[in-house]
Amino acid sequence: MPAEFRPRGLFEHLAQHDVDYVVVGGIAATLHGSERNTFDLDICPDQTPANLDKLGAALIEIDARLRDIDEDVPFVPDGRSLAGIEILTLSTLLGPVDVIVRPHGSPPYSALRRRATRLEVGAPVPVLIASIDDLIAMKRESGRPKDRDDIERLEALTRLSRRLAR
To answer: Which class does domain 7-161 fall in?
Structure first.
């Protein structure tokens, strides 16, 4: 049985391990104000070896396992393994987590992080959420129907924000 999705618990756990990452995907859109439901946490981590080691330790501690794989494939999400992936879909004790090295349409990590929005979400430290503009670019690149819907919502939020700023 899959674990209950606990995004706040995941944020707290990653903060305890001092993992440097930016939230992307559906949770990022939701935190910006979109009403979309999503049931996994998509993160884009800094790719430095030290950060991947911290992320690996955090994932091992919450029993991260490959998701949607029928066979029991031996896999340990340590820093060395994480350095060789582009996308990794995991089940954990705190719910599903997707680790995405360079989401399609996203800028390099340093720019993604610099443009990210820092939000208080009840975790010990603020969480970095990909900017609306970067999310729109990533979702345009993906082109899935749910991403097209997200783009409409995110563009509407951008227009509203501009009107309120006047």
So the answer is: alpha beta
